[in-house]
């Protein structure tokens, strides 16, 4: 009797690539060579283009375990990103398999195991050109509207699906898990101010219906096709919560011209008046305060007192805490 081959866990980038290509061969697919290989933003997967016998092209994502020196956000487990994305695609397959309501790639196959090691998706080729010309404000707002329209009750209670909770209560829970690094970085006075700020944020935003939140709503995760249709990809941080979270994430990370960003913000707030406007501002401020704290923690844990971005991130935190003219244009 022939002894079974031992299972070898890949330990290097080349090992992972060989393992991914082995899976492609098992699926009767071949890798499509690219002039510029795709890169996972979180280094959590190896994305490859693959072609089948029918010449159809797919996106193959081979999930990678975090390297020993990876600094994970507070409260995040190593396999959460895999469980979250594959769980979301499975949930989406049950409520919108043809993707008529939600603009995301269609699922072709999901690998075995818990969590799966890979997923095969529909390939959505983007229009050629710089993001500034391809992705417009209409696309951003359309995707945010589609996210908010998905019924969140269909996503809750699923096994092995660790939904993120992106709301002021969830932000505060994460920040408290960062206590040691954060307190050293911002000091006791700002820490107390931060606690009061989130107490007020919860008061203003509590009771708003939770919406589907992408969790990493960036230009790099938006695909606009040649026929001007926008799609979202990369659901490793998907969750439910604050309807302003994805907007704030995009607005803060965007490197577009300040006037373009100003118009984007005014358009987002344009349909809100009175109490709704105040609640929207609190939603944006709380998301930005959380992101500033996360950046400060990362800077401290990786660079200590030499963190070159500390002053800028403290200024961002203070602007979020103050609100008004410090953050929002008139």
Which features does this protein show?
330 residues; 10 helices; three-stranded mixed sheet; Aminoglycoside 3'-phosphotransferase, Chain: A, domain 2; 10 strands; five-stranded antiparallel sheet; alpha+beta
Question: Could you explain how this protein is built, in words?
Answer:
The chain is an alpha+beta fold and 330 residues long. The protein has a domain at 125-326: Aminoglycoside phosphotransferase (APH), C-terminal lobe (Aminoglycoside 3'-phosphotransferase, Chain: A, domain 2, Alpha-Beta Complex). The chain contains 10 helices and 10 strands. It has a 5-stranded antiparallel sheet with strand order 1-2-3-5-4, with helices on both faces. It has a 3-stranded mixed sheet with strand order 6-10-7. The longest helix is centred in the last third of the chain and has 30 residues, at 274-303. The termini are far apart. Mean pLDDT is 90; it is low at 1-8.
Topology-level CATH name of one domain:
Aminoglycoside 3'-phosphotransferase, Chain: A, domain 2
Mean pLDDT: 90
**Uncertain stretches:** 1-8
> What's the tally of helices?
10
SSE class: alpha+beta
- CATH architectural arrangement of one domain: Alpha-Beta Complex
Q: Give the spatial strand order of the biggest sheet.
A: 1-2-3-5-4
Count of beta strands: 10
Q: What is the terminal-to-terminal distance?
A: 78 Å
- What profile does the largest beta sheet have? 5 strands, antiparallel
Instruction: Please state the overall shape, judged from the principal axes of the Cα atoms.
Output: globular
CATH class of one domain: Alpha Beta
Order of helices and strands: HEEEHEEHHEHHEEEEHHHH
| CATH homology superfamily of one domain | Aminoglycoside phosphotransferase (APH), C-terminal lobe
Cα Rg: 21 Å
Q: Assess the beta-strand content as a share of residues.
A: 5-15%
The helicity comes to 40-55%
